[in-house]
Amino acid sequence: MHNRFTTLTNPFASLRSTLALLLAVALIVGLLPGNAAVAIAQEQSNSGSNAPKKLDRWDRQPHLTEVAVRAEQRIYKSTPQGDLKLHLWSPKTGGKDRPCIVFFFGGGWNSGTYRQFARQSAYLASRGMVAACAEYRVRKTHNTTPDVCVEDAKSAIRWVRAHAEELGIAPSMVIAAGGSAGGHLAAATALVPGFDAEGDDLSISAIPNAMVLYNPGTNPSLSGRSVVRSQDGKDITKAISPTLFIHEKTPPAILFYGTEDTNGLAQGIEYSAKARELNLDVELWLAPDQPHGFFNDSPWLEVTTMRLDKYLTRLGYLSGEPTVVLPDNAPSLKQDRDTKP
Asked: Would you say 102 and 69 are in contact if contact means Cβ atoms under 8 Å apart?
């Protein structure tokens, strides 16, 4: 009787088992709708609890595609603090020489989840790309500092290039992307010298071919943060500031900011102005009256994804028209073409 009562009042363990079985079958036949791929990934990330899961910010956002995609996880790095995974989405049809985008979550180098960009990843897979959301070490979970975050980000870019053939991607079409601290990491892979992890194959470049940056921290000294310190206590504020290392061969970049993101926008304006001085390919898009992190929530989730699609199409990574559907009366981004620092 006790066992029957437990079964009736704790259905979530069996639900997880059922979802895991469905995931395995879906991966075998290659038919996993984009929304299901995101949902099952979220269920796996919460598999340690038998309690009903409270909807968080990521659960409440709309799915961006109904197209079937593949979803899987791969360990890309083993560290003293544990293994780090890439959460991968790819077209169900397979293929080779596809573009690949690697997302890094935000959270001030302190916390965060790969799920932040799961919806964009499933959408881009539905459009023909391979998309990855990278785990990396953060302070609250791993007791690490920003220099370690940069190391992990570079390792992730190198890993996808090293495994290009099995992933079906073109090593010359790798995009680094991220939001806030994750945007900083994406830019750091392109611009910040050093901070290479011990054991990385340095013959494989960690420099992406393009960048997609959502309110990135491109110069921490402008963010109100006094000093950024490394694991050994050194001041690395300037050493990890991508804007300070912009050069004539910097990869193209698109940046998104809310106009009310006071500290963040100042960094974006500085970055884009310096890039324009060197005649680099840079787009700066502003969301009127929006704060830091605006892109995470509908309708700006859909609006920024639409702009992302058009940007990647312009660069030759995608083709055809965007398939993301905008909500009724969706707001518009404004392109900034001439703001000076």
From this structure: no
